[in-house]
């Protein structure tokens, strides 16, 4: 009975993460609120079972402390930003101006918009719970594999839906008419860049499962070309098809940032595979050649639009909205840096970029465009949280990445999950330099899932110093 309940919690957890992209990428409040409630309920149920001793925690608090502590401190500061009446001398100056204009007290919070800060805090806590649940469930190797396979299946489904909609010429997301990114494949996401990042994660997972499925044959002492071909056909075909589908969908999204970030993540994946004992160097080279062949084929058939947009960036051509958005990146970054300099220690409020940025926006930015995000997740974190707390906030994923690199290099089996986590972190980290896809709920939840699985499998049961 105990195992049945635990399995039910695990399946409910996977369903919540894998169905979130269906709700427009989780970008609507009703979608992420429901997701937050479901994840919190699942986490509470598992925590209650651990507290009552019904089951033992697969990963102890000591093993999670290095990651949890800096992240918790950053969220604690975010909560403090939304609280007024504590340290009035560091409250946002906008509140004093509002009080003077209205002739009455308004607020003395650090955050320019406490309500947005609380909402962002709840989202971040939900993604932290996704990571914790993935770590606890993912310590079991069978569940870890089941989770990655389920994610690949979900990425295939979203890619297939996007391809059907794209080639049918329907400019819609589910039953909603598209208001932006016409001609771009966005699947069930609103933003092409967010879907491009999600498809890139699916591509990485498919590629690693392909390598893991053929590894037993490649590792044999005597293996011929016929054996390799049969193994690819029998075991690798589903993952090759997944790579082709997600790769095609990624290219048809026409997201330059997602394409380049995925390419960098694939390179990181190959480097980690070559540096570990996952496969022999010759086999890693053969795998790299296979990825080049598949990638080249997909790029040749579906990459015209993305390659054109990359050339457009270099030559400064394209339609007016594209040029307007591209030309705005430099002043956007400069103005964000000005906002950081104005409150380097305390920030302007976690999740409050949109209202805070209005104070610093000038005529260099095109008037029709609304900047809800900074298009650089690192600068946005520094502006919202302040430099010290932003450093703590970003330290957590960095420590996870380092732990997964260590696990990939040291483990003798099940390195696939740590390698995938490293590649996923590189993709999200690189894309976060030029866009905000890591902040989209469906992408953030999927990333937390993959990082949690990699972290859980980053040490063996004999590794006492984990």
Automatic annotation (TrEMBL):
Regions that span the bilayer: 35-52, 64-87, 117-135, 147-167, 194-211, 232-252, 258-279, 286-303, 385-404, 416-434, 440-456
PANTHER family assigned: TEICHURONIC ACID BIOSYNTHESIS PROTEIN TUAE
Tree of life domain: Bacteria
Gene Ontology molecular functions: ligase activity
Predominant location category: membrane
Identification of the protein by name: O-antigen ligase family protein
Record InterPro entries: O-antigen_ligase-rel_domated (IPR007016), WaaL-like (IPR051533)
Keywords: Ligase, Membrane, Transmembrane, Transmembrane helix
Short name of one Pfam family: Wzy_C
Membrane topology: Multi-pass membrane protein
